[in-house]
Design a protein that fits this description.
mainly alpha, Mitochondrial carrier fold, single chain, 1% strand, 72% helix, Solute carrier family 25 member 35, 298 residues
């Protein structure tokens, strides 16, 4: 039940934040491996990107990749948050009755690795679909998938089972870092809010405020890994399934840093916060409330 509740909470958040994920993906691919000023800027900022995508691709364009997004959230976060809930229930993350930062970071990272490996094929397809757009505003490599299942079948036919896990070398550090930062700060912040007696200990505002604190830390820690992950998943590949732009996580990280500078690794930071921030807050809030509700009736 921990896995089901965790997946349901993440899906609830995804319904609200998927348009922001589309915007974030496009902004991270814009000007890929090009120095500032040497490429056409289709998306000037988050709000301009929303307007441009809505105008050119239509409102449906802002919900591209929603189906794989929901599948990804259910399976990846179901496994990740469900695993963490089991670890938390066992008492592992506490030392002398208090939340241990070291233990929550380790537990969050381990849970993140498991979730990332499980969800990588769906994230691959989601990235491909969200980057697809009308030629006049296209950024990054353009795949021609007709939907999630068509994409999975096409990748499997062309590159085999291993092709479905292409880009997972970036997914593992991305999700493990994000998961460690998220769950460590959420557990610690929740305990801090209760200690300060800002709200009653059983109030829904405790989880909401802890999620807000966690969201800032998550975005700052995760964005460079998120940019690299998006680019590795979306890059064109040869007949053997090898990337034509990057050899792997380290190569993509170093090339981006060298050619675009540190700002290249934080491309789409505003979009990242508008997406990851609300998603972190909503998913953790839904997760905490669903677990409390389930415990009352168990």
């Amino acid at each position: 039940m921990d896995f089901v509740l965790s997946g349901a909470a993440a899906c609830g958040a995804c319904l609200f934040t998927n348009p922001l994920e589309v915007v974030k993906t496009r902004m991270q691919l814009q000007g890929e491996l090009k120095s500032r000023g040497s490429y056409q800027v289709y998306y000037r900022n988050v709000f301009h990107a929303f307007y441009t995508i809505g105008k050119v691709d239509g409102l449906a364009g802002l919900q591209k990749g929603l189906v794989p997004g929901l599948f990804y959230q259910f399976f990846m976060n179901g496994v990740r948050l469900g695993s963490y809930a089991i670890i938390e229930s066992s008492g592992y993350i506490h030392t002398n009755g208090r939340v241990s930062a070291v233990k929550t970071t380790a537990a969050g990272a381990v849970a993140g690795v498991v979730g990332a490996v499980m969800g990588s094929p769906i994230y691959l397809v989601k990235t491909h679909l969200q980057s697809q757009s009308t030629a006049s505003i296209a950024v990054g490599h353009q795949y021609k998938h007709q939907g999630m299942f068509h994409a999975l079948a096409a990748i499997y036919r062309q590159h085999g089972i291993l092709g479905l896990w292409r880009g997972s070398s970036a997914a593992v550090p991305r999700v493990s870092v994000g998961s460690a930062a998220q769950l460590c700060t959420f557990s610690s912040s929740k305990e801090l809010v209760i200690d300060l007696q800002v709200f009653p200990s059983n109030s829904w505002l405790v989880a909401l405020s802890a999620g807000m604190i966690s969201s800032v830390v998550v975005v700052l820690a995760m964005t460079p890994f998120d940019v690299v992950s998006t680019r590795l998943y979306n890059q064109p590949v040869d007949n053997l399934g090898k990337g034509q732009l990057y050899k792997g996580f380290t190569d993509c990280f170093s090339q981006t840093l060298k050619k675009e500078g540190l700002t290249g690794l934080y491309k789409g930071l505003g979009a990242s916060y508008f997406r990851l921030g609300p998603h972190t807050i909503l998913s953790l809030f839904f997760w905490d409330e669903l677990r409390k509700f389930y415990k009352q009736f168990r």
